[in-house]
Design goal:
The structure holds two protein chains of two kinds. By secondary structure, chain A is mainly α. Chain A contains six helices and no strands. The chains are: A mainly alpha, B mainly alpha.
């Protein structure tokens, strides 16, 4: 017998049971196993391992399943909330960017007008007014970045879940 | 007509809680059994079980419904377990086993007589003990082949190895369990 035949026998043995094996292949395998003690021993061990493994019963406890379902639902809520928040932030950013662009031009012009009225050099007053205009936003941004705490400590999701848990206890 | 896989894919894309609840119910035992064999520790397997479902929720949009859901689920479980084992024990996956823990598997509760039940239980305990000694690489393919009834190609896709390597691992896994099979009562 050739090495290719042994290899084919092992392949068919491993596929038997989970895959459709044609009648000619099945007949060839049976014939080979009856002639080859080595392959026959492997097939017996293979089937024995399968029988023992299939007899091993592992069950998940109902509490594990319930806890998993609850965690998955909570995470789904969090994800929905996060997505909604992202959309709001994106819309806010677009509106903010548009209004900033428009108002920056107006404030620049206002600086020029003030400089003209007070007879001051426009090259100083215009940027000065612009800096004063942007200062609050810069200060708030720096403060938010410097703070390690989230802006919203307790999310809506957690509050909903706590209410659900309290309801469940009652 | 929409196939079951297509329905699951649609439910996962929409993060439908009813679909997810039903899937957790349906695949609870299979997933836990796979993770338990992979890690050898029930507590760890239960943690990974929850983590796997959370990842199913997060990656659900990637499931296209073309392959069987169970294969995709097991591949998520495989990745979760591998991530955990890498973090916890990069040197040896076998170190994950808790030596003080008893047999992690529940023996089947059936038998014609107490003696037969005890004998069967002893046989399963011996088998479980032997199985835990087998390398996790071999144990994994044996579990996927025999317990999950996956095809060789599906196992290869799931673990991301060639089919030839799957066959080699099955062969070596069976060989590692041979002494028990030949020595124990049948």
């Amino acid at each position: 017998m050739t090495a290719g035949e042994h290899e084919r026998a092992l392949d068919l043995t491993m596929r038997r049971g989970t895959e459709e094996i044609g009648a000619p292949d099945s007949a060839w395998l049976n014939s080979h196993l009856s002639l080859c003690p080595e392959c026959e021993a492997f097939a017996a061990d293979f089937d024995g391992t399968g029988r023992l493994l299939q007899a091993v019963a592992v069950t998940a406890s109902p509490s594990l399943v319930a806890a998993t379902q609850m965690r998955v639902r909570a995470r789904a809520l969090q994800m929905q909330e996060r997505e909604a928040r992202t959309v709001l932030i994106a819309i806010s950013f677009c509106i903010g960017a548009m209004s900033s662009t428009m108002s920056a031009w107006l404030w620049w012009r206002f600086g020029g007008w003030v400089a003209q009225r007070l007879a001051l050099p426009p090259s100083i007053v215009e940027p000065g007014v612009f800096v004063v205009w942007t200062l609050p936003a810069v200060v708030i941004a720096v403060a938010m970045l410097a703070s390690s705490r989230p802006v919203i400590d307790r999310s809506l999701t957690m509050r909903i879940l706590e209410k659900q848990q309290e309801g469940g206890r009652q | 007509m929409e196939t079951e896989e297509a329905q699951i894919a649609r439910g996962l894309r929409g993060r439908d809680p009813e679909v997810l609840d039903a899937l957790i119910e349906q695949y609870q035992h299979r997933l836990l059994r796979y993770l338990l064999h992979l890690t050898g520790n029930r507590a760890v397997a239960e943690d990974l079980f929850q983590e796997t479902w959370l990842r199913v929720l997060e990656k659900g949009h990637l499931y296209d419904g073309r392959n069987r859901f169970v294969t995709w689920l097991m591949s998520i479980g495989h990745n979760v377990a591998i991530d955990y084992l890498r973090k916890r024990s990069p040197a040896s996956l076998d170190e994950m086993k808790d030596p003080e823990e008893g047999t992690p598997f529940e023996p089947p509760a059936s038998g014609p007589s107490p003696f037969d039940v005890a004998a069967e239980q002893q046989q399963h305990e011996r088998f479980n003990a032997a199985l835990e000694k087998v390398s996790p690489l071999f144990r994994e393919v044996l579990v996927l082949r025999f317990q999950e009834q996956l095809k060789l190609e599906e196992i290869a896709t799931l673990i991301r190895i060639p089919v030839a390597t799957v066959k080699t691992r099955i062969y070596r896994g069976v060989a590692a369990l041979r002494p028990l099979l030949q020595g124990g009562p049948q």
